[in-house]
Design goal:
With 583 residues, the chain is an alpha/beta fold. The protein has 3 domains: 5-126, no CATH class; 135-266 and 388-560, Rossmann fold; 268-380. 25% of the residues lie in helices and 21% in strands. The protein contains 14 helices and 22 strands. The strands form 5 sheets. The chain has a 10-stranded mixed sheet with strand order 12-11-17-10-18-19-9-20-21-22. It has a 6-stranded antiparallel β-barrel with strand order 1-2-5-4-3-6. Helix 6 crosses helix 8 (358-375) and helix 9 (408-427) runs parallel beside helix 11 (456-471). The longest helix is centred in the middle third of the chain and has 20 residues, at 291-310.
Amino acid sequence: MTLDPTADAAYRGLVLGTEAEASTPLGFSVWVDPTRFLQLDDVVTVITTLPDGTEVETSGIVDDVRTRQEGVALTSDVSLARDGVLPAQQATSAHISVTRVEPEVYVPPMPGQPVLLAQGAARDRALFFDRMAEQFPLGLARDGSTIVGNLEFLDGAKGAHVNISGISGVATKTSYATFLLYALFEGRSLGARRANAKALIFNVKGEDLLFLDRPNVMLTDEIRERYASLGLPAGPFGSAGFFAPVRRGDLPIPDTGARQEGVTGFFWTLREFCEEGFLPFLFTEADAETSQMSYVIDAVAARLAAAAKASPAGPNVFIDDVEVEDFDQLLDAIDTHLDPDSDLAFKWAGSGNSAAAIGTIRAFMRRLHGSARHVGTLIRGAGAASPEKHRIGFQHQVTVVDLHRLHDRAQRFVVGVLLRRVMEERESRPGTDRPAPFFVVVDELNKYAPRTGRSPIKDALLDIAERGRSLGVILIGAQQTASEVEPRIVANAAFRVVGRLDPAEAQRNEYRYLTPTTQKRAALLKPGSMIVAQPEIPVPLLLEFPWPAWATRASEVAPTDEAGEPAPVPRLLRRFDVGDPED
């Protein structure tokens, strides 16, 4: 290939062939022309002509750039070179990590060959975008171009699930998860399936996610342009429903702070708790650490389910023909049937050689009562008003369940119950080749699915990670440290995303998909920047995503006029603060 370097704006330099920087089929270095420059994340391409005339296009990404002085040997020579005493000159080189070779003839680029900045179709080929029949926007490259993902590796056709890691408050994990949902629901990627696609988000940090349906007052023209470049509108989520736990007391009022209007308080009836087997979700990994404890939990849950099915219709249950009207009475009934000194005809923890040890039964009772203090308000009897109106439903496209005011045990309970419900509802539907996806966003994944131990919640998350793909249930999990999460859940994620990482955490095996350079860069990322790895691209890509177009707190809610349209915003408020939306 003949090229006049000065005539091509894409020209960046020449392939190096020194002993220290020899060219290989999987990586090569470039001497950067002094009148041009290369930076990290630039995509370049080289055309190599084989002896038979075949042209091989080798493309890659800049993963390292170095500048050195040639003609000096000592550290202090830099001063002499600057003053013109030594005849030294500066030389910049960049290392390229090869992403694609087309056709697949793996020969090294020849020294002296021109290196071009990949643009347009060449860039799409380099990053395999041309092979992605179904795309969705992941974010923007540093040059403003769009970085896309393969939808078939997200919706279950070829793969599924997203895992996001990063330091809390800096990595913007939740912000990026909601951006992905916005890109899918408000864009065109899902096509006809968009109408039936759903998402369930657990809000565990403040009330940031209770305003997804409200426009952001800080939305500027610059931010709108960034959304437009991704093919997206700039505004709030079009369909969102909000649920919060009811407060203590007889009235089912949602326990929220900044937002009350449009939020439904939720609870479950005693019958639902017993009949659907919610009891195991009251226990953590440590609670069920022994087989005997697990046996007692399962045995009592089975007894409660049988009692509920035998009870007359209604929110209450009958145990030994005695009506149980509230959660405290239910606990009393369980205590009575587990008491070794009870005169009842049967023991719920077994009898004879199969009976659980007294110490295990007492430990079960202690843990049950400990959990009940925090969960009891969510389980109500016939005295509760209109339980049907206070049941979490998925009528909206995005359902946000606010948990941030609940105790840790109560959070676990709600998450476990809803995860199992999602899977059961999907299993009850007729099978289809590509069902409309149902996304589940779980933050603090290391709390619900830790690396060690077992629990019903962890089993539910594992079920989604390993079997949810076939049902269209997609897990978007986030955590500070992937090394503390059940490995099978992380391994099943087709898309792996990191924000700013602790340098020590970045060295763990869970991040081996990052190149040495990206591992170092992960410790320097600013809010709004993420590194994304997906199956078809051999090198992780750095991207940015725009500031949320929806409000992330009450103070960001844009005023609206009488018609519900965004009202003009005072100029003093129309500024863009690059701080963290999670702060």
